[in-house]
Amino acid sequence: MTEFSVMIMTVAFIATILFTSRPSYRFVTGSVANRHAEALGVSLKDVSFSFDQMVYFIALPTTIPEVRDAMKEELVVEPYYESYFFPEVNGVQVSVKSGSAVIPIAYLPIDDFSLPVLDRHLEAGKVNERVNRTIRAHMIVHERTLAAIRDEVYHHLHEDRLAQ
Amino acid sequence: MVYGLLIGGIVLITIVFNILRLMTTPVLNRWLLAGSSSLVVIWHGVLSDFYDLHWSVLLLIMTGLICFHWKGMTVAIMVSWLLVYSQSGTLSFPLLLSYIFFGLGAALLFGYVTQLKRERSGRLRMLTASSRQLNVFREVSFTMQETLDPDRLLQTILTSVTAGHGLGFNRSIIFFADVEKDSIYGVMGTGPMNPEDGFQIWEEITRQHYDLQGLIDEKETDSTHDEQLNERIRKMTIPFHGDHLFKQTLDSGRPLHVYASITDDPVLRMLHTDLQMDECTIFPLHHQGIPYGLLVIDNVVNKKPITPQKMDSVRPIAEQASLALHQTMLYQRIETLALRDGLTRLKNHRSFEQDLDVLFRECETDELSLIVMDIDHFKHYNDTNGHLAGNELLTRLASVIRRSVPDEQMAYRFGGEEFVVLLPQYDEVEASHVAETIRAAVLGTNFTYGERQPGGRLTLSFGVASKHTLHEQSRERLIECADQALYAAKSRGKNQVCRWEGVPL
Question: Which 3 state secondary structure label does DSSP give B238?
Fold first, then answer.
């Protein structure tokens, strides 16, 4: 083996971290959240959540053609992470990809993602801030939440257009 | 084969450690990442007889930097250098220097990337806060422009600073200031009395998925959530000219951030005792130097601190609210001037025409009665006592009528010494009872110079007509028939009630 193997080692190590850290984060937060939710007697499938603190970066109704005419499938809803090495979800961002351009539409910070049931347990001291954050993170990156956010944003973009 | 083993081993170690570290605390997470890089270096060394250890330890230096910044990098450099020394038996200072230079280069790059990320996050936070403020401001402006109804306006102001779609505070309360009456009094609030109520309301709102407009509408039609709070705050009255922080806030025109639990201020002590209020901010509502009141916000449920940034986000709403209140009050004043009689403060003839029109249009099948009344010998009263006394009499009489009818909003000055009362859902018999009540109240009142009237007292004559006795269902006909009944009462000796019963009297 030569110095080349050192490069292989470095690339393999960093690439594995970059490609697996976020899926691992989602897997781990999911299992930890489910375990804690079960202990609290809460079903995460049925828990009500609210994304009414979602912030729109564009005026509604908008005149930006790419956004105004975007189909629901063209809305990109994805979790926003700060780091690849130490992934932690900070929110969910919604954008429209038009060619090579990405037009940001809305953002929901995780701190404003409301789960009243969880807040109640936090206030009662049944969960600590770390568990609260983990369950919140699991819920905000959940497919159900992302789909609901997509519906909500699409609805807002088109509802206001009709009201014009 | 060896490369396959190398890559396979690295991937396996990294994945296992990746999962393990994410299940631990943030500090342990960093240690495990550093540990996984050490294992990878060892794995590489095992497969290459540690031939390239002096190169492979660069990974340790990099990981040390990523995990523990400067300190981690310095330790990693020293450990790497000693590892190479232990393996080669040669203490190479040029190698140490190379590691230091590598570390410095990596640190500069890492620092630059971290700085970029920090700036990006900061900008995102600022953009989010500004956009939220703008969104709320836009929706609130729209709602405020749409209404001149004071209750809806107040509800809009309160909801915009509290609800999820608004600025997100847990509770907000509006107090009005009345300088003339030397009073500051609670008007309306939204939010819970305590954290438990707050969670219940919040869960309900979350289930319903209201938007800001929907929430304002919902709160307007169903006030059960805020009933207890409103009941409590409407009992709160504070002297305007007292020595308290409300007055100071109005005088200074600036928001005041205080902790109600640790202050000696009597008003805030009251809010703390009655509403469990602690950290709160008081915003003055004033426009062109006129104090309209105060907006008080707090986070009684989640106890989130009220930061200066959060306070700044409320200020434009409070200023917009002050302007809207100013406009609404001006409108109310103009409306009062246009629809109220300036002397008696009863509704005027124009108002009567409008209300009658609405009642005829909207309640076609419902019963409706009209009383027309006229002061007997009013000309004599004026001629004997002067017009000023006549005006005083009209004012006094208006207050007697106001007190004697089922709904004072349905009593009008028709013109001169003539008054009318509209009675929706009343038939002619019930309406006659109301007329008799007014007549008795007038007789029981001691009017100035009443004894100088013919008969020794002031009296009124009444004509009553009801919709169902009319052959032709029109408002003109209702007035005409009631008028005819009044004339009949006059011609039959005055001081009595006559009703139209479908035939000429």
Answer: strand
